[in-house]
Design a protein that fits this description.
By secondary structure, this protein is α/β, with parallel strands linked by helices. It has helices at residues 18-29, 41-51, 63-77, 101-128, 141-144, 150-170, 188-201, 205-213, 224-235; strands spanning 9-12, 33-38, 54-57, 82-85, 132-137, 175-182, 246-249. A 7-stranded parallel beta sheet has the order 3-2-1-4-5-6-7, sandwiched between helices. Helix 4 links the parallel strand 4 and strand 5 (132-137). It is globular.
């Protein structure tokens, strides 16, 4: 299977931490030239030093910062072959009537609007390169729904519709567009989600984690590397005819609760 990214130019949002950092490591190891953005300067500095990538401080919900991100990407990469829209936040946890308007808007701004802001600038670059791949991070919450997490679930369902529609729009330009839907991904982020959900339900962290994994066929979380591996496949020649798909990497997640 040809998974080499030698000579490919890749832009990864939120590429200095969590899943994004593992994606950055994976694409660099496969030979890609990578530019990342993130909102945490210290994380960016460490990633640049360790992996030799280039980077921009950018909040993807800020149009001016996204413009700067793409100006920097053009400067450092010289073009674009792969766009990974990884940036996202968990959003608030609570009953819909209790969610603050500002929290709803912030979640949609980052998880959905930011993806659009980046993609609208990435597509002309991909067309100029003769085609390429766009990989959008959705979630199992964008396939199953997630009670008490309505802003996040709404945004992640929208990502699937955005990805499918865009794949139809740019397919003749040799651009593939897919969404990845991670399940329960091990790490600090899911720990925060479990903790917030446990508090909302008045149960312990351990009880909520067990409850969540009871809905997984394999009774396990998935790793950040699992998600990065799927992104690499979709971006590589091995995935050259995969487009318009929402692909779950979830160990058989059947329900979020």
């Amino acid at each position: 299977m040809q998974l080499s990214m030698q000579g490919k130019r890749v832009l990864i949002t939120a590429g200095a931490g969590g899943i994004g950092r593992v994606m950055t490591e994976t694409f660099v190891a496969a030979g890609a030239k990578v530019h990342i953005c993130d909102v945490v300067q210290t994380a960016i500095d460490e990633t640049v030093k360790t992996l030799g990538v280039t980077a921009t401080v950018c909040d993807v919900s800020n149009l001016q910062q996204v413009d700067q991100l793409f100006a920097d990407a053009k400067k450092h990469l010289g073009g674009l072959d792969v766009m990974v829209n990884n940036a996202g936040i968990s959003g608030p946890t609570g009953r819909v009537e209790d969610i603050a308007i500002a929290d709803w808007e912030r979640c949609i701004a980052i998880d959905l609007n930011g993806m659009f802001y980046c993609t609208r600038l990435a597509v002309p670059m991909l067309k100029a390169a003769g085609g390429g791949s766009i990989i959008n991070l959705s979630s199992a919450a964008g396939r199953l729904g997630f009670p008490y997490r309505t802003p996040y679930a709404a945004a992640k369902w929208a990502v699937v519709g955005f990805s499918k529609s865009l794949s139809m729009e740019v397919g003749t330009d040799n651009i593939r567009v897919n969404a990845i839907q991670p399940g329960v991904v091990e790490g600090e982020r899911i720990d925060r989600v479990i903790d917030a959900k446990a508090k909302a339900l008045g149960i312990s962290f351990e009880a909520q984690r067990d409850k969540m994994l009871q809905n997984v066929s394999m009774r396990s979380t998935v790793s950040q590397q699992d998600i990065a591996n799927m992104a690499l496949f979709l971006a590589s020649d091995a995935g050259m005819h995969v487009t318009g798909q929402a692909i779950s990497v979830c160990a058989g997640l059947e329900m979020l609760s």
